[in-house]
């Protein structure tokens, strides 16, 4: 077993263990993948101010996200098909998050259902909603999340239509994988994954199959998405969803100051500056570049969070310094899950927490709550939008 010291180690191991079509599903952006790459590289360009001879004892990264205490300002992002990175992946990641003290978000497009995760974790988690044309189904989905005791709803606004990811088309992404020669040959090199899958009955979209009318076989994700996701979604829908849900509401996928103001007007509790991990509009700025102007414009009126490109605790700290009061991690936790299951997600959270804690200290701070933009070297900040 290799020694795992950073998220990149988890990525390399996940690539070995997860079937190609699911690894590629995670490690991909849309079209040229330019925004996907910029999400990471724009973080790296930001430099930190090192301070010395400051008492570094008694440090804390604790804070709250929508009023919920968290061990650090990091939540697990909603990701579709997580149960294909590893058998029962959503349940394992939810357990790891709960034990670490950070929120877990279950995607509408998960393999394990809302009820599966509630039953297995016995702790409140967050639910992410995609709005589909079938409003009866959406109302029932919201009600199921309430019944499962979910403590916040993340409404994703940036996927009314699907960005094109070349690899998914080339790999014929489907769940479960179709028994083509190429898939069979690839699966033969992933014995652990196959063994895990043989031991679970969760192989398709648990929130949808058997719940949405007329949906039995969902093997073609992109065809189903094109058919079902509602391209007419509007701010009026946000209003009825907020009413129906009645709890904490988080709007995900905001990249523009004008949309951020509309998010404030909607009465939501938080917004997530996010370009969907570079998977939707290729050519959009990186999330860390979009963050400062949004945080400055509406940070006093709503909790501003961000996601996209976070691969270390240093990235979390930089986002915090630029005004994010919370962050979400997608691929970092998926790599941990694909590499080592629940232990891999725990390892991912430990790595990020340690990097965050030590970097905060190197920058001369002991409490994340007191830390601001002055830990960053001004000339290295992303150009204002
Ligand atoms: C494989 C994968 C699947 C995703 N599925 C969803 C989803 O079902 N719902 C959603 O709102 N966002 C989804 N996202 C976007 C993430 O929630 C998050 O915005 C993104 O992963 C953050 O970027 P990062 O992966 O660089 O951390 C997905 C991202 C990935 C990588």
From TrEMBL:
Catalytic residues (positions): 276 (proton acceptor)
Cofactor: FMN
Lineage: Bacteria, Pseudomonadati, Pseudomonadota, Betaproteobacteria, Burkholderiales
Record keywords, A-Z: Flavoprotein, FMN, Oxidoreductase
Keyword Flavoprotein found: yes
CDD domains in UniProt: alpha_hydroxyacid_oxid_FMN
Protein name from the UniProt record: L-lactate dehydrogenase (Cytochrome)
PANTHER family with a match to the protein in the record: 2-HYDROXYACID OXIDASE 1, S -2-HYDROXY-ACID OXIDASE-RELATED
Any one annotated GO CC term: plasma membrane
